[in-house]
Amino acid sequence: MPLNDTGRAQSVGVAERLAESGEPWQAVYASPLSRAAETAEIIARALGLPEPELVPALAERAHGVLEGLDHAGRAAVEAQAATIEGLEPRSSVTERASEALLELAERHPGGNIVAVTHGGVIHALVLHLSGWTLPGPGFAIVNGSILLLRANAGALELAEPEALTGTTD
């Protein structure tokens, strides 16, 4: 399903915030899933960068039998199952996304890149990189969130944990 007008406006808002940061951006990368790819195209165009490169390791966490269910349906399945068939372990998400981001950072030594991914991937990275101290109660990854990471000595770190921002506009 493609982005709707709200999603496109949120993508433009992210591009504006990135442009206003004053940082020079070298490239845009994205999950190959349609909404992330379209978001990345909008951001790249707004920043005057080439078309984004699609990176499969940035795809959303696989949720197995939970995919397509609403909150109540997910809760019902989770309440009845010790394990969820097809649910990708958070550690796997963290590992594949971290490896991909480090590889991308190596392509742009000392530079800044934009990587467009999904809430489940961002959440897994925040938990892992903060040693499970973030996020706090009520925390949610909203559309348009920006997470600043730094590649340092072959490892990722949260550049500014307080800078995880988003908009619900």
Automatic annotation (TrEMBL):
It holds the Pfam family His_Phos_1. GO terms for molecular function: phosphatase activity. The keyword Repeat does not apply. One of its GO terms (cellular component) is cytosol. Keywords: Hydrolase. The keyword Lipid metabolism does not apply. InterPro entries: His_Pase_superF_clade-1 (IPR013078), His_PPase_superfam (IPR029033), PGM_Phosphatase (IPR050275). Its EC number is 3.1.3.-. Signal peptide: none annotated. It is an enzyme of class 3 (hydrolase). This is Histidine phosphatase family protein. The lineage of its organism: Bacteria, Bacillati, Actinomycetota, Actinomycetes, Micrococcales.
